Amino acid sequence: MTSASITTATPLQDDLKAIIAPVKEELAIVETWLTTNLIDDNPFVGELLSQVFQSGGKRIRVAIALLGSKASLTEGRELGRLNIIQAVLTELIHTASLVHDDVLDSAALRRGKETVNKRFNDRLAVLLGDLLFAQASICLARIMNPVVVGIYGQVLGDLCAGEIKQMRSQFNVEVNWEGYINKSIGKTASLFAAGAHAGAILNAAPDSSVQALKDYGVNLGICFQIVDDLLDVTGEATELGKQPGSDLRAGVVTAPALFVLEKDDAAAKRLCELIKTRAIATDEGSLEGISIIKSTGGVEATVNLAGHYANLAKESLSKIAPSDARNSLESLINYVLVRTK
Amino acid sequence: MTSASITTATPLQDDLKAIIAPVKEELAIVETWLTTNLIDDNPFVGELLSQVFQSGGKRIRVAIALLGSKASLTEGRELGRLNIIQAVLTELIHTASLVHDDVLDSAALRRGKETVNKRFNDRLAVLLGDLLFAQASICLARIMNPVVVGIYGQVLGDLCAGEIKQMRSQFNVEVNWEGYINKSIGKTASLFAAGAHAGAILNAAPDSSVQALKDYGVNLGICFQIVDDLLDVTGEATELGKQPGSDLRAGVVTAPALFVLEKDDAAAKRLCELIKTRAIATDEGSLEGISIIKSTGGVEATVNLAGHYANLAKESLSKIAPSDARNSLESLINYVLVRTK
What we know:
Order of helices and strands of chain A: HHHHHEEHHHHHHHHHHHH
Number of strands of chain A: 2
Largest interface: A-B, 46 and 46 residues
CATH superfamily of chain A: Farnesyl Diphosphate Synthase
Number of domains of chain A: 1
Mean pLDDT of chain A: 90
Helix content of chain A: over 70%
CATH topology of chain A: Farnesyl Diphosphate Synthase
Number of helices of chain A: 17
CATH architecture of chain A: Orthogonal Bundle
Structural class of chain A: mainly alpha
Oligomer: homodimer
CATH class of chain A: Mainly Alpha
């Protein structure tokens, strides 16, 4: 498995370009939708949306949704309007949760740029997040499919539940693997799964394809979250677009720290102490924490864990018919695994 | 028309009890739903919900939803599970928007108690609001009706659009009546209307009844917002459960100020100056603003305007069949008109 730290950003962007090739045209339509005011005729809403979506983002969830929809169609059939809207709403929910998360985390940087809460204030960030959720709800209504409404309703709940679990387990060293994976599903994989398989439902694909794409999304989402947690330990601020070590400082125990803590040795005891005494929240403490993780194999073990879920995602794909879209979904797994931000 | 300032709280609470009598049992079921975790099995979510809903609230929107549903049924038929869920989701959206509004307004008091943002912090308030929206989405999914999803999706959009309009018109004396009424629809009447008529759709009531209940909700909602704006000028902190004059201080021009500003006299010019120079944001300035409004007939004109929309709400009701529920909806108009908080 390739370590997350050895690949540079530019080839990765080229990789992503190749991955999305089968849905390139649809992606352009999604971009237009993302900044379209679906609520009323107030042009300011469109301006706000443009500001949010111009600040970048890799659109991985859009790619998953469009490719998942395409992979569920029989060869030669084209994606429909509902597939586009489902991709749009997946990205809207993701962006809304990012904007609110940055308020929750008092984050100053996101994707290398100042966050909405930092650039303006928490108030505008709350309103913008709500606006994005509202846009997503209107998309959901336009899809007119009660099953899909149920899927995304549960995603919204999972996102909150994930945040609550994380908030309640800060500076708590009793976190176990089950709790960590569940939290990762809530925070990330639930939306990945919805993105990956809701289009197949709309396309009336066979149940086996729907389930395979759902499994793909869950496993890829967990893999994505593990890599995210790894990058918080191994990453550089310039590449991450945010300060590394922020999880540790906030007392959030993720995979790299869990691998250290589960051993009953001196390193585990020291890391445990740093967290319990909240020394981990200081510059010195977080540097020591990162150093312990790096020197005791926490990084390698986390890379392997991410690889495990990447393999599960790959296996899920084997249950749907081969196509360009399925190939792209497979390439996306590697992209998620070796990304550096 | 009775002035909003001459009735005391206790008889009003008795009034409300009598009004909700036709749906008393269903209201109790709604209360249980409001604090039920619909997302997962984490008991902490239930605790958070209990904290939010134990802090009171008159449940006017629940009453509107249950009574609207009941009034749309032929005599003798009982409310169903979907009617309960629709009432629950209406209150959830209202409460979510209150919790986020208090962050937007940096409000310290709500219903006479400390707000979530004041008692804890903005971060928890954002998360709680999102949690309530997520619960509402899950309710919406359970209703399994695409038209109702569309109605509430638009409500969420209208709530944000109303906030944005208000934010952008602060300290702006160019606000006109059309803008004021539109903002009131977005902030308040859109959810009132959804609450009032979505149940009739679920009950497969005739289109004329659905439309009549929608009109009732819009007009009652505008009336409610006008009375709210009036109370901000005439109310006392002890009764309101929040500081009066907060709209004026924030430079938000509402009906009582609009009645003054639309005249081209000395009082209008002085109020205009107070707002433009932002002197209105000070203790002295806001007291002078309130005094100008009270001495130039702004209060009486606003009471009359609220009465106008109350009459429109009453007229809308005449288009549905008589019943106990319809009588209660009519009594609710007076309740909204003479409330003091």
